[in-house]
Amino acid sequence: MSDTHTLLFVRIPLFVLLLLIFTGNLYAQVDSDGPTASATATELIPLQVVVIDPGHGGRDAGIAQEGFLKEKDYVLQIALEVRKKLRHYSGIKVFLTRDRDMTMAILERVAFANKKEADVFISLHQIFTDSPGAGKSLRIYFNQTVADPELGRVRKKNIHAGTRVLPWDLGQNSQRVQSRRLGISVRKAWEEHYPAAIEDAQSDYPMSVSLAVLRGIHAPAIMVEVPFMQAEQADRNDDQTDRIVQKEIAKRITTGIMRFLANR
Fold first, then answer.
1. d(Cα 72, Cα 57) in Å, to the nearest integer?
2. 133, 159, 214, 250: most buried by Cβ count inside 10 Å?
3. Which residues pair with 164 in a beta bridge?
4. How many helices (H) and strands (E) does the chain have?
């Protein structure tokens, strides 16, 4: 055998080995603290960008009820948990519109998501209720389509987001079907852990509504209103219990996102 053939014989298995190492590192591996492992949630997927938007912030506290966390703080804690869990997937890049208490306009949130070229956008809010901690239902919304007769009345204001310039109010028209699929995926992941949470006509969710924070997003986008499930005893300040609950909410949302991306 010539030297040339010998060299080629050695190089081929090395190339295959390097290729296997590269592809193995490209995709997600979930550790014990990650989302629930399942065939659908852990399929190999190309690099995807997820943007999580903790609602309100800064001067805008959102729901503020005495004895409970303000909505802006509650949804931020959940968003941070979702980011932590999504980072277990090496095929996922995740961004938060805000990672601290700060005022952020709706247009800034939309522009941020489009500049990052999001593949998924989820805006987190809290369900308003007179009895915080009483319910475990989830409410999910996606943006309704702007009908053809309305196009002439749509505002001409544009969102300039990096490489994308999108007409305001029209961004979701081409994403409506995928946005609904994303909402269904999150709802199903939620109901697996909270099977009794069909109250408040939850079977009707995701629901089509008109939401400013979703309209300009050029990607599947939903708003998720989470229940305020604090400690079992509302008059007991149990931070550890609250954190466990927030982690479980984040896990359900993360599982829904990953299943959507794996089956897109």
1. 5
2. 214
3. 161
4. 6, 8
State the pLDDT at residue 148. Answer: 46
Token pair, residue 263, equals 């089956």
Phi/psi for 115 (5° steps) reads -65, -35
Please state, in angstroms and as integers, the Cα–Cα distance from residue 198 to each residue in 78, 189, 194, 209, following that order: 22, 13, 9, 20
Task: Compute the distance between CA of residue 177 and CA of residue 195 in angstroms, rounded to an integer.
Answer: 25
Is the Cβ–Cβ distance between 144 and 209 less than 8 Å?
A: yes
Please tell me the distance from the alpha carbon of residue 119 to that of residue 91, in angstroms, as a whole number: 12
Chunked into runs of 10 residues, the chain (264 residues) has average pLDDT values of 45 46 41 43 70 97 84 96 95 97 95 96 87 70 68 45 52 88 95 68 75 92 86 51 86 97 91
Token pair in block for residue 121: 């956008």
Per the CB < 8 A criterion, the answer to whether 98 and 240 are in contact is: no
Integer CA distances (angstroms), 111 to 75, 106, 218, in order:
20, 9, 10
